UniProtKB/TrEMBL annotation:
Full protein name: 1,4-dihydroxy-2-naphthoyl-CoA synthase
EC number: 4.1.3.36
Native species: Tepidiforma thermophila (strain KCTC 52669 / CGMCC 1.13589 / G233)
Keyword Lyase: yes
Cofactor: hydrogencarbonate
Residue numbers binding substrate: 73-77, 85, 117-121, 143, 149, 246, 261
InterPro entries cross-referenced by the UniProt entry: ClpP/crotonase-like_dom_sf, DHNA-CoA_synthase_MenB, Enoyl-CoA_hyd/isom_CS, Enoyl-CoA_hydra/iso, Enoyl-CoA_hydra_C
Signal sequence bounds: none
Similarity comment text for this entry: Belongs to the enoyl-CoA hydratase/isomerase family. MenB subfamily.
Name of a matching Pfam family: ECH_1
Entry annotated with the keyword Lyase: yes
Alphabetized UniProt keyword annotations: Lyase, Menaquinone biosynthesis
Pathway membership: Quinol/quinone metabolism; 1,4-dihydroxy-2-naphthoate biosynthesis; 1,4-dihydroxy-2-naphthoate from chorismate: step 6/7; Quinol/quinone metabolism; menaquinone biosynthesis
Length: 276
């Protein structure tokens, strides 16, 4: 298999955003701090994920970190201020919440490729992704209670869905670190591969997904989320049903009747069956 030829889509300071063969590759590029994120990193990630979402050529997104020693080490503790992480505008914020929601709802599978550390808020990022492939050098864990932080959102709730309540509580309460083999055993990751094979394996999984029906994959992601995401999850599933309904002649009859200013009762739905 020839190596994939990534093309840069957009240039950023803290991340790399590339695309090739229907796959987007978004990578945190701050290896000097194990790919910790500052507000700027998160804003750039939100921008890249949004572009990948809107790009009809992209069917799968690979999310990774540069350097081979870390996926992400969470929030950059050097800029943690009073009430959030402080950016160039001097405002403390937790804009990572918006990134979580975006990865969660983007109607395309997001695969985390984890080499080295996935820790703290960096661990949460891989938990939110649809799938995780780990390199043999990967190490996983939460640090919140050690460093005065916690994530009671997806970082706790989705984690418990992935590995079970007891294990999730252990991960958070004890702040231990787990190697790739332990992560696989507890269902925290989908596969473990040698470091040098990580990206190729991610591309292989992505290409397999790309052969599938995009709408089937979209509906499945939305259904997996809906069970957990309450009204927001049901709304996404319902709006996906809208998308499908808009593709029918029945829905188009309603639009046509309005545009044609038909009177007196606009639409004629009589020819459409009332299915059992
Ligand atoms: C990852 C660790 C264990 C690696 O240890 P190792 O291999 O000994 O390397 P170090 O020498 O420690 O690290 C190399 C250089 O990288 C710097 N660095 C590492 N992590 C960070 C970081 N998070 N912030 C800033 N710098 C970092 C080191 O300082 C070192 O630099 P130099 O060489 O200059 O000294 C180890 O590094 C470690 O434990 N790191 C910290 C992990 C951590 O506690 N992360 C923060 C946890 N909290 C969050 O992420 C909160 C996130 C958040 O914003 C949030 C808030 C509310 C709700 C949700 C979230 C969410 O994101 O989920």
């Amino acid at each position: 298999m020839t190596a994939i030829q990534w093309q840069t889509v957009q240039t950023y300071d803290d991340i790399i955003f590339q695309r090739a063969e229907g796959i987007a590759r978004i990578s945190i590029n701050r290896p000097e701090v194990h790919n910790a994120f500052r507000p700027k990193t998160t804003f750039e990630l939100i921008d890249a994920f949004s572009r990948a979402r809107e790009d009809p050529e992209v069917g799968v997104i690979l999310f990774t970190g540069e350097g081979g020693r870390a996926f992400c080490s969470g929030g950059d503790q050097r800029v943690r201020g009073h009430g959030g992480y402080v950016g160039e505008d001097n405002v403390p914020r937790l804009n990572v919440t918006d990134l979580h929601k975006l990865i969660r709802s983007i109607p395309k599978p997001v695969i985390a490729l984890v080499a080295g550390w996935a820790i703290g808020g960096g661990h949460v990022l891989h938990v939110i992704c649809d799938l995780t492939i780990a390199a043999e050098n990967a190490r996983f864990g939460q640090t919140g209670p050690k460093v005065g932080s916690f994530d009671g959102g997806f970082g706790a709730i989705q984690l418990a869905r992935n590995v079970g309540q007891k294990k999730a509580r252990e991960i958070w309460y004890l702040c231990r670190q787990y190697d790739a083999r332990e992560a696989l055993e507890m269902g925290l990751v989908n596969a473990v591969v040698p470091l040098e094979d990580l990206e190729a394996e991610g591309v292989r999984w992505a290409k397999q997904i790309l052969k599938m029906s995009p709408i089937a994959i979209r509906m499945l992601k939305s259904a997996f989320n809906a069970e957990l995401d309450g009204m927001v999850g049901i709304t996404e599933l319902a709006h996906n049903a809208n998308m499908l309904f808009y593709m029918t002649d029945e829905a188009k009859e309603g639009r046509n009747a309005f545009l044609e200013k038909r009177e007196p009762a606009y639409s004629d739905f009589s020819k459409f069956p009332r299915r059992p």
